[in-house]
Write a structure and sequence with these properties.
The structure is a homodimer of 490-residue chains. Chain A has 15 helices and 20 strands. The first copy, chain A, has 490 residues and is α/β, with parallel strands linked by helices. Chain A folds into 2 domains: 304 residues, Aminopeptidase (3-Layer(aba) Sandwich); 128 residues, Alpha-Beta Plaits (2-Layer Sandwich), CATH 3.30.70.360. In chain A, strands 1-2-6-3-7-18 form a 6-stranded mixed sheet, sandwiched between helices. In chain A, a hairpin with a 6-residue loop joins β1 and β2. In chain A, α2 crosses α5, α3 runs antiparallel to α5 and α5 crosses α15. The longest helix of chain A is centred in the N-terminal third of the chain and has 20 residues. The two termini of chain A are 35 Å apart. The interface between A and B is large, with 92 and 92 residues. β11 of chain A pairs antiparallel with β11 of chain B.
């Protein structure tokens, strides 16, 4: 069934499509091995793990895939990789890769997170399990397999490629602006019609999504304790002393309490909503359309919740999902965190938070407002550390990148929703914002799950005809490149 | 120097004191070995470690020390031990032991926490390092050594003894009321003139304390998450969802925020101060006197802080220390707690808190007020778990227990402060409250530190003449028993 699909006349534009598909099938085992090898080498910026080895590996992956040049771009953090492939085509396409992965705790996994074990996933097919499988090594490896297959079939690519791959996406792209500021990188990107990140967007029923942008994300930590004021002890001390000594955990609670309203979710930072653009009628229309592809009960079950915020209906909750900037607590840690209690007064309290930003908010604006808000309320003993982040991105529906996606989905009969934006984040703003001002999007037909969670997976062989496994996902990238070339020529 | 002190005419009342002191010295190595063996077997109720072995061991320690009967008293939690020693004396004294110890993390210790290593402590002398060394196995072992030495010297004890030893002191004596409710135990205790717990109360300069009671302590945890409401996810999920799904960490912050005033320390639970008795003039006098023995700079340095609450002066901070009931955050834990950030919406948030209660507050009152306070504000999704606790205790200055301490200190020239109460807690209320209504106190001349912290220690051989090592501490218990017998006869 899978092979039939891959051979189907999905995109009439792709020349010698059968030959390329046969090449994809022939190199399949090699591609799976390459994905497993890549999963075995995690780069985790937060833990300073796999750096700089991950960048060297990424560079080699690009060269192996046919990029004519690839080089390491040093930053103040984890290095990036910049590579180009000149096919002599009139159109140049930008590609963004992240080669880092999220932290993981092997104890929470059913198979070793770095093994990339192939396991039958009931009702879905054969999947590869491992950290980075879907976020983002699986889709990226499928893209590399696509350009290899075109070349191995004796063809030139229909577009030239400019690849930038960063190793700090999971720590909110702390130094990515330094990469695109390198004159050579910036000049190469400026020649592209836009930049896309390979992704796995299919639902279990085979439907897909086109996203017209993404929220921005800014991660920061608030710390109070002996290190920020001599009101607090430097280590945990006996709790009887709270009668005469301030507790940094209370101070943290008081500071946090000012950041959202009493409802526990509406941001209350001074001036927070000033630059938030409301949804347009077209965006609301897209949301209502998209809701039909994702039944509410299915969404709630997947998220493990029974109710949306304020007991709102599904459409309202979706409008909120795509339109609202958030102030989220990722984690709290202070004093004793084991089972039961322990009579200590903590020497330190930390809250890990993140903003999700929507157009036309910027990272600098959000951080500035947070600091002013805390300063105005006298929280000078609350230390703010911004560990990374970037603003939102937004791309027009009639850009080449999006037109090519629509056409591909329409011609192959993939049901899809157009989302006004992704409620998650990726640093498209680096391309989308000044000075490049390029379209930026996500694209990929394939399926996976468990990003940022245990048992992350990416579908290799699908048992559902409408859902793409590795080979079909690879062919979708082949078709996309040809469709982009044709749309750009219009 | 140490031996000279031990042989000094510290308490003229003790018959054949030199002979007993010689016995103490002769059994010294045995006592140290017994203490090390006891440290090697930790009972930690919070971790269900060393139960019920710890109770069996405690029972055997009592029998070895000359108690004629000792038996395990089962409870719904960790079992207790009840033992009696009938010396045919007119006076019976109650002894309270805790045989459990605080949790520990070996990585934070300079020597293995269960080794009981003997290490020279600069400026203090030879000390034994181990979990439970001072809290409370060291002082308790010295007491057992004292009664052994009297008997080994061919004498009967000057008082009969009733011992109750519990294994859940560090989890706020969760089931201790069940122990004293056992008719045989209650009847035995009812015959005592009061109950004391052996302790190590000497400062570095040799000064000591008499405490006329202690605050109560109630430990509880607040939990919010998928387990308490279907508004929240059951596990950590991708943080982009906070735009449409409630975050239990915010809800916890909102609930916590109502528990103390904006100053970050004054309890704000409805009706909290209703039964709080203000300090009496005598209590204030005692605090001012006691302050002279503990210079402010020394206290601040030991606690690692530069300022008291509200920048108060020392005496005010001490009055607060002894008189104010507190609502303390022991710990916070939610979502991601590792380095940096992680884009999750937590499925669970927990705050670990504790009350310290002063007369005439009770545990039932405090817990009832907390629950009413949260219910009134609609926090029905915040789960309150009371993991243990008890009310405050208070003993008159003219009770036999306290008179005997004063006389002993006066006669041996030990400088001492009388504290209106201990700002820390011990479950004396079990004896002090109804139905027993007995005096309850702490007594012991020896020195140690690091309770509830790494590198807990207890002094074995003191390099400072005024500070008691193990032998002198043991002799102080010998003298105390004879002094109690004499005071009771008055």
């Amino acid at each position: 069934m899978a092979l039939v699909l891959a051979a189907a006349p999905a995109a009439a534009e792709t020349p010698e499509r059968d030959k390329i598909a046969a090449t994809v099938a022939a190199q399949r085992d090699t591609t799976i091995k390459a994905l497993r090898d890549w999963i075995a080498l995690p780069t985790i910026a937060a833990e300073k793990r796999g750096t700089p080895e991950g960048a060297e590996y990424m560079k080699q992956l690009a060269l192996d895939a046919g990029f004519q040049q690839a080089r390491i771009i040093p930053t103040d953090g984890v290095p990036a990789v910049f590579a180009t492939l000149d096919a002599g085509a009139p159109t140049t396409l930008g590609i963004y890769f992240m080669y880092d992965v999220k932290q993981f705790d092997p104890a929470e996994w059913d198979s070793p997170p770095l093994e990339g074990r192939l396991v039958e996933r009931p009702g879905e097919g054969l999947a590869i399990y491992g950290r980075g499988a879907v976020n983002q090594k699986g889709p990226e490896m499928a893209f590399l397999a696509a350009i290899k297959a075109i070349q191995a079939s004796g063809r030139k690519l229909p577009v030239n490629l400019v690849l930038v791959a960063e190793g700090e996406e999971e720590v909110a792209s702390t130094h990515f602006d330094q990469v695109v500021a390198v004159p050579e990188v910036q000049a190469a990107l400026a020649k592209t019609i836009g930049v896309f990140i390979p992704s796995a967007a299919q639902s279990k029923d085979g439907s897909a999504n086109i996203t017209l942008g993404a929220k921005g994300a800014v991660e920061f930590q608030l710390v109070v304790g002996g290190e920020t004021s001599d009101k607090y002890p430097k280590t945990d001390i006996h709790s009887s002393n709270h009668a005469r000594i301030e507790n940094p955990a209370w101070r943290l609670v008081k500071a946090l309490d000012t950041l959202v309203a009493d409802d526990g979710h509406t941001p209350a930072i001074d001036g927070w909503f000033e630059n938030v653009r409301p949804l347009t009628p077209r965006q609301k229309e897209l949301i209502a359309e998209g809701a039909k592809l994702n039944p509410e009960a299915q969404e709630k079950a997947a998220l493990g919740i029974g109710r949306w915020i304020d007991d709102e209906d599904y459409i309202t909750s979706l409008e909120r999902f795509y339109s609202q900037p958030t102030v989220n607590i990722q984690g709290l840690v202070a004093g004793y965190t084991g089972p039961g209690g322990k009579t200590v007064l903590p020497g330190r309290a930390e809250a890990k938070l993140e903003f999700r930003l929507v157009p036309a908010m910027t990272k600098a604006e959000a951080v500035g407002k947070l600091k002013a808000h805390l300063a105005k309320r006298g929280f000078d003993d609350v230390q703010v550390t911004v560990s990374g982040g970037y603003g939102p991105n937004e791309t027009e529906e009639d850009s080449v990148l999006i037109r090519a996606q629509k056409r591909l989905f329409d011609e192959t009969g993939i049901p899809y929703a157009i989302r006004p934006r992704n409620a998650g984040s990726w640093p498209g703003v680096i391309f989308n914002g000044p000075p490049l001002n390029l379209p930026a999007s996500q694209f990929g037909l394939s399926r996976g799950g468990g990003a940022h969670a245990p048992n992350e997976w990416f579908l290799i062989e699908s048992s559902e005809p409408k859902v793409y496994g590795l080979d079909q996902a690879t062919m979708a990238y082949v078709d996309y490149l040809y469709t982009v070339a044709e749309e750009a020529a219009k």
